[in-house]
Specification:
Length: about 100
Amino acid sequence: MLFGVVGQTSPDLRLGYAVGIAEVLVTPVTGSGRTCPFGAQMVGRWKSGAALLNAPTADDPEFAEGTPLVNGFEFGDDREGLVCPWAAHVRKVYPRDDVRAT
């Protein structure tokens, strides 16, 4: 086996977001503040912690970290990954109802 250590800092990650946004031509300005839709799609959550399934178009403080609704979502209505992409981090680490019993 081969193991390696990969270092990554926040500025590098933000630069990656910026490059991704430029590549898909997404303007990251919505509502009253700046958000990063590309970053939210990578993680499956907005910067506040609100899940994409609960707030698909913009960050919503009603579903943010520290609220009772922060984990109140399932993937059942998004089987195709159109709202929260299949490659999103949250779908990988906690698939919820994505995995069906066989």
